[in-house]
Specification:
The protein is of the alpha+beta class. The protein has 2 domains: 41 residues; 57 residues, no CATH class. The chain is built from 1 helix and 3 strands. β2 and β3 form a beta hairpin. The model has no long low-confidence stretch (mean pLDDT 84).
């Protein structure tokens, strides 16, 4: 009888461990799913209009800001810090891009 009792206890312990592992795996999967869907959503770009009238999409902040001409593909950002039409400097400070 003692053997049967300890077998039941072992089985219950193994079931508890399996349930805890399954819950942990489900929680991790949910976290990863949320992280990947959040990064897949593209944040709404801000816009900037140069004094010459050239419009830009803007992403990022401060010195990490990236400009694209309004009609440019995502893979074709401005590769400098000046307007592509009039060569005026593009804003690089804090409060420069307007939504």
């Amino acid at each position: 009888m003692k053997r049967s009792s300890s077998g039941s206890a072992e089985r219950a312990g193994l079931i508890a461990v399996a349930v805890a592992l399954a819950a942990g795996i489900a929680a991790t999967a949910a976290r990863l799913r949320n992280r990947s869907s959040a990064s897949a959503r593209r944040p709404r770009d801000q816009t900037y209009t140069c004094r010459c009238g050239t419009r830009y999409r803007v992403s990022g902040a401060d010195r990490h800001r990236v400009y694209w001409p309004a009609d440019a593909a995502d893979g074709a950002p401005v590769m400098g810090d000046r307007c592509v039409r009039c060569d005026a400097p593009l804003p690089a400070g804090r409060a420069t891009a307007a939504a």
